[in-house]
Design goal:
This protein has nine helices and four strands; from the N terminus they run ααααβαβααβαβα. By secondary structure, it is of the alpha/beta class. Strands 1-2-3-4 form a four-stranded parallel beta sheet, with helices on both faces. β1, α5 and β2 form a beta-alpha-beta unit.
């Protein structure tokens, strides 16, 4: 449901971007990350304590609506950053056949190992998502030195799902690695990278997602 830019347009997908805060047409530069956090504070607090999410229920309903309107085998869902972990609750809907988790940053402010490894969704949702992943493998992407989405979180996902059901990929960063991605980079799909470079690691991640999405029309 996330807009991935021109490569997805050329691939012929219908992309939906849910409006979770702000108003339609508002300049997102005026909103900014801080305002987004304030608007979603109650929801983020729920996610940080593994409480049920109202947003997740609405997104599952949206997935069903998209599937009914567009047809096909099902829909793909890409959760990024503040709502990356919501994917685990949204993918419980049978309409979701391609779940993708990018740089999940909730719970926020990881001050302990327990916090950095947490998934921020109800335990029952996490358990059911792991069961469903036996049929629909989850893709995951993060940058190696991303402190907002620490490696402990991906390790938790691998332990819960198993490596066959959760295909998590950590992309190397730093000047000595492919793409020379700056250390501390966070956004895999919406960063300031040259996505026209087919050999760039971020573009390869995008291509892997597109390839998986194409299975929905086969």
């Amino acid at each position: 449901m996330s807009c991935l830019g021109r490569p997805t347009d050329r691939a012929g997908f219908s992309a939906y971007l849910p409006l979770l805060f702000g108003k339609l047409g508002m300049d997102n530069k005026l909103v900014g990350p801080a305002s987004a956090i304030l608007c979603l504070r109650k929801e983020l607090n729920s996610l940080s304590t593994n409480a049920p999410s109202k947003i997740a229920g609405r997104l599952r309903a949206l997935c069903r609506r998209i599937h009914a309107e567009c047809g096909g085998r099902g829909v793909g869902v890409i959760g990024m950053c503040l709502i990356g972990n919501l994917l685990l609750s949204v993918m419980l809907d049978e309409s979701v056949l391609v779940p993708v988790m990018c740089e999940p940053a909730v719970p926020l402010v990881p001050w302990s190992k327990e916090r950095t490894a947490a998934l921020g969704v109800p335990d029952d949702d996490a358990r059911r998502a792991a069961e469903r992943a036996r049929k629909v493998q989850v893709l995951g992407f993060r940058f190696e030195t991303d402190t907002k989405c620490p490696d402990d979180r991906f390790q938790t996902l691998e332990q819960l799902f198993g490596k066959k059901c959760f295909k998590g990929k950590t992309i190397p960063t730093g000047p000595n690695n492919p793409g020379k991605i700056p250390n501390g980079s966070h956004s895999v799909l919406t960063g300031e990278f040259d996505y026209s470079d087919l050999n760039h690691p971020a573009r390869k991640a995008l291509d892997e997602i597109i390839e998986r999405l194409q299975t929905l029309s086969s």
